[in-house]
Amino acid sequence: MTQAIIMLTRNDVTVPDALEVFHQIKDTGVSNIGFKDMGLSREKYSRLVSTLKEQHMHTYFEIVSSDRQNTIQSAKAAEELGVEYLIGGKCYREVQQIAAAGDIHYYPYVGKIVGHPCVLEGSIEEIIAEAREYEHFRVDGLNLLAYRYDGDIKTLMRSVQSAVTVPMIIAGSVDSITKIKFLVQSNISAFTIGTALFEKSLVPEGSLRDQVQAVLTLTSP
Q1: What's the pLDDT score for residue 90?
Q2: Is the pTM of the predicted complex or chain greater than 0.90?
Q3: What is the DSSP string of the chain?
Q4: Which domains can be identified in the chain, with CATH numbers?
């Protein structure tokens, strides 16, 4: 079963009213909520995570920072916040140690991550090699920016999926019903979706709640 991770984010930044947005959608049946390491003050992140825990949500904190220092700082922030899942980031050895100390499931980015919003570069062979290295290092899963890849997206997804046994989250630019259906048909473990919800890409005339409910309907067994 493919899980949908509803991101309180737009253009790779946590929306400023993330807590209010969550309250709008919390009774849609959503169970996985995520946000980026950019956009809110530490106080607001703390309040958001506390509320999500009170509502029994699975929490996903995504590192989009590209340099080592900010990545490590974000990982430490995730540990302090007590999130359940940490996704993204490239300094996987250091981040994995921090995640393990906080009993956090860690899914690092795989491949060469460039810019912000992030794009994915590199050959499929290079990405597979890195994915296998991560698996050997015993990360909990992988975070693949498949729809931001500058090559054959479907071949990339299928190749990485068949090369490793750990779960894989598809993150970034999941912005259509067609893409979601493909991910479900491909039995991808999970995907993130954020900007598309705020831009009403799934239900053009619908509310934010309508977008979320559309996602949940497409991923329901």
Answers
A1: 84
A2: yes
A3: -PEEEEE-EETTEE-TTHHHHHHHHTTTT--EEEEESSSS-HHHHHHHHHHHHHTT-EEEEEE---SHHHHHHHHHHHHHHT-SEEEE-S-HHHHHHHHHHTT-EEE-B-SEEETTTTEEES-HHHHHHHHHHHHHTT-S-EEE-GGGBSS-HHHHHHHHHHH--S-EEE-S---SHHHHHHHHHTT-SEEEE-HHHHTT-SSTTS-HHHHHHHHHHHH--
A4: 3-109+167-219 (3.20.20.60)
